[in-house]
Amino acid sequence: MLPTLRRLFAFAVCLVLLSACGHDLRAIPGFDAAAWRQDAYACRNQRAALLPALLQHRDLLYDTRTDAIDALLGHPDENELSEQTEKIYIYYVAPGAQCEPRHPRSAASKLRLRFSPTGVVSEVLYQP
């Protein structure tokens, strides 16, 4: 019985440590999150003007949890899953083919946020 309790305790400690990873993101100086969220797929061409402030403070995005990114930037325009259980959020920055019905993939400029297996931002990449 004692080994079972030890395992249970170790599991509980691991859960607490994993849930403590990352941080919340309240706001980014000079960045209008509401305008970004309202410009889905960048079809209103507002995100390009907001991008410099976001990139200037990109260090604030690192180690931020998925739910905090969702609250700040809204639901991603696209997302991908990698083989290592990493998630990638894709936000278009300029209008393109993605603005057509059914939102096909586009070569338009985009912001890519890669999340580690623990669910925190590990990479911020802008693809012009």
From TrEMBL:
Domain of life the protein comes from: Bacteria
Organism of provenance: Hymenobacter defluvii
Protein name (Swiss-Prot/TrEMBL): Lipoprotein
Signal peptide interval: 1-22
Keyword entries, A-Z: Signal
PROSITE patterns: PROKAR_LIPOPROTEIN (PS51257)
